[in-house]
């Protein structure tokens, strides 16, 4: 069974689905959703499933605005068995869903499969002329990759509990199934340790999760079919540990919580046995908080300066035949792997931990690329790809969408080796995000990554990706995410007494730079507020994307606006370009937005002029295109840590004009 691919862009049954199910066959008719809507389990049921049913009902109520009173069972959940108590690697997440005018059924072998199906049902609810409905459909679905993760760094910026919970809801909505919690780094140790209370006590500015809160997160995630894997990064990225326990470090200290970003020298001393006794107790305590069998020890980006400068460590290394910093790191990781195993866990680490002498169960998470995973897989190790899924780079969703764990170096692997590539994980490092902005940097891009990792044939549905992403992004409002709703208040706060709608026009036309663009833009530390224009601006502008589409649609042929352009698109182009052109004189910004705002107005004027020159019988003066293109090159340079995305549609118009000969013929 296979859906008709040509239907993806046009069939309503597909419009809100992301990730796209493996098999979708549209049916005939619609199922009305009204106040009597009710969901009921038949077959296996338990408290977890009942809570999921209550959540689905509440979600549909929020999503539709209908006050659902229940009474008539419309959706039946037929679950065969519980499945594992806590979600695991390789859990069965499959389900089937049938929707007809009479009712709907989700059948699944496990509760987790039923959860996935219920999310599909929520996504398939659509507005209709007189209310809400789900389109008739038959779906058979299962994931392509078993590991579909999101990593959140809560160290560099503190992420309070509600941030975690709402992001778990959003993960569940798009069928992501691993929450990787980056709990410690140079800038903070974020979990209560009862054995070593100075870890969180002195290493967190008071921003840490209590053990009760950790339990709450684990149970909340379990309810949503999501595994929780903690990461305690070591032996580097450990400055915050040394504030309370300087004796763990390779140089005497004292140490303070790191406020800047980067790779720092403080590193665990691998030469002393007391260190391993400490780690044994700490890992034991932390491992017991998390039911998942995997435990992440980081292992990345070790600066060996402290090791190299310590005569004691160098003497110890020489005695043990450890001839380089790499050999010392490998020794340390092997010792930690043994500790992790003693506490019943399997170790996971970044690329740098890979060493063929590690236990074969070790999983390698790659921030460096598919080649690392291919090397590991050839040696029989499992791997997860994060390279290409770094959300802190604020790439366009289509860029993340294009990254395939099984492309590039991993493409050459044998089928057995390929099976060791478990999937991928989006990473949100928190240098430039805080609780107010983090959702808007994770979402909706993470939904595109979720589709890449779940869908069986993502390359065939790329064309409809953005349409569906926009729909899904709006529905994520109803699971409580703040990725869209924080935008307006942030802009209003920034506008102060200036017209907020003009600031919004500028923000809608802008895209925030990611970590690479912000790192050297000013002196950032963890104490600098993230409350400027760049923090409000989104990574990718929906309204500019609409303008690009409109620009293309009015230019179906090289001969410009002839008669075949779409009148609506043309009107939208004109009105937005006009708004851009007039915006600077309305906004009159001072400070860092001065140049940016002027540039948007220049772009608006160029675009309007290009539209004129594209009219039948019109033509631009010789040299005009070249002049505008040169100007665009200037305007394209980031200002105030954003790019003016508005350049893109204007460039489409200019290029179209350039394709026409100034004398009226074609070049
Ligand atoms: C990493 O990006 N250093 C894991």
Concise synopsis of the structure shown:
By secondary structure, the protein is α/β, with parallel strands linked by helices.
Describe this structure in words.
The chain is of the alpha/beta class. 40% of the residues lie in helices and 16% in strands. It binds acetamide. Acetamide binds next to loops. Acetamide (ACM) binds next to loops.
Individual helix count: 25
The N- and C-terminal alpha carbons lie at a distance of: 49 Å
In terms of DSSP E residues, the strand content is 15-25%
Q: Which structural class is indicated by helix and strand composition?
A: alpha/beta
- Order of adjacent strands in the largest pleated sheet: 8-9-11-12-13-14-15-16
Average pLDDT figure? 94
Main beta-sheet strand count, sense and barrel state: 8 strands, parallel, barrel
How much helix is in the residues? 25-40%
Could you tell me the radius of gyration in angstroms? 27 Å
List all distinct small molecules, including ions and cofactors, that are bound in this structure: acetamide
Q: Which fold name is given in CATH as the topology of the largest domain?
A: TIM Barrel
Q: How many domains?
A: 3
Number of strands: 18
What is the element layout, followed by pairings?
Layout: E1 23-33, E2 37-43, H1 47-64, E3 72-79, E4 95-99, E5 104-108, H2 111-123, E6 125-128, E7 131-141, E8 147-153, H3 161-173, E9 178-185, E10 188-189, H4 198-203, H5 211-223, E11 227-234, H6 239-244, H7 273-289, E12 294-298, H8 305-309, H9 311-319, H10 325-342, E13 346-350, E14 363-366, H11 370-378, E15 382-385, H12 397-401, H13 415-418, E16 421-428, H14 438-442, H15 445-454, H16 465-476, H17 487-495, H18 500-508, E17 510-512, H19 515-518, H20 533-536, H21 542-553, H22 567-587, H23 594-613, H24 624-635, E18 642-644, H25 647-658
Parallel strand pairs: 2-3, 3-5, 8-9, 8-16, 9-11, 11-12, 12-13, 13-14, 14-15, 15-16
Antiparallel strand pairs: 1-7, 4-5, 4-7, 6-7, 9-10, 17-18
Helix pairs in contact: 1-2, 3-5, 7-10, 17-18, 18-22, 21-22, 21-25, 22-23, 23-25, 24-25
The structure holds acetamide.
